[in-house]
Amino acid sequence: MGCAGSVESQPPPLEPVKKIDTGVLAKHGALGQLTIIDSKTALVVGQYGVCVLDVSDPNDVRCLTKVKVAGSREFASRITLLPNSTIALVTGSYGVDILDYADPAHTKKVTHIDPGVIDQEARTVIADHRTALVVGAFGVEILDISDPNNVRWLAKVKMGVCTRMSSNRITLIPNSTIALV
Length: 181
Known about the structure:
It is built from no helices and 14 strands. Strands 1-2-3-4 form a 4-stranded antiparallel β-sheet, with no helix packed on it. Strands 5-6-7-8 form a 4-stranded antiparallel β-sheet, with no helix packed on it. A 4-stranded antiparallel β-sheet has the order 9-10-11-12, with no helix packed on it. It is globular. The chain is mainly β and 181 residues long. A hairpin with a 5-residue loop joins strand 5 (78-81) and strand 6.
């Protein structure tokens, strides 16, 4: 009910325009993540990899290429884009894969980092232009992203608050060097 007892009508449900089999999403269980790069490109990550989509024509969205990544046993991997670059960090149960999508049709895995903190699901946050933090069940991993084409592992911080049974989160306190896990 709206103001003064008026009755609001419900809009009709949206109908899919087209279904796309990306080949990276699990049939059951784990969900995927869609990340829009720009008006032409999007990345879909799932349990079985990353699909690079051409979204330049909304009536003809198509998969340009698929990239196998470390993946996840039970949860979908997650994508974090590095600012001012064509690099994406993909976190999954088996570590962090660094992808270069400068040429979307030829997106490639640059390297793999096994931080040792991820068990099932991980979250990544960009702290600043030099640092990314990856939180998993076994702690926080610190990555050097100052050169996006050469992402490197810096350190691991063991935590006593993370759990394998929940989706761990990390939040940065603005204008500080403090992160809450």
